[in-house]
Amino acid sequence: MKKRNGAVVVFSGGQDSTTCLLQAINNYxxxxxxxxxxxxxxxxxxxxxxxxxxKLNVNSHKILDINVLNDLAISSLTRNDIDVPSxxxxxxxxxxxxxxxxxxxxxxxxxxxxxYQIEADTVITGVCETDFSGYPDCRDTF
Length: 142
Known about the structure:
alpha/beta, 4-stranded parallel β-sheet, elongated
């Protein structure tokens, strides 16, 4: 099968983005990753992303500091003074306090800028509506 040119994968190190990365490696000549440090509590994801990208020999892996998101977005994922709710506490009719407004659109915008700079023609992100978290930016309409 003929591979396509380059791709940039928005890569958190989680299962969705790792699946996307593996698929990109199989389908593109050149694959780069971009991981965002936005002050999230689960910083281990960044270390896991580094490890996986290295193990899979991606062309490049950029870690981009966008902690400015914390100045605008109030979320339990970025603020230690807000409790992360348990699964049982989640109300399907409300957006959970773990939602970081604008996060995915910002990730895609910055990944697109990076892709342009390295001449990659595709940006890939892995968001999963069926693993429904209540996040508006993980839905098909987004």
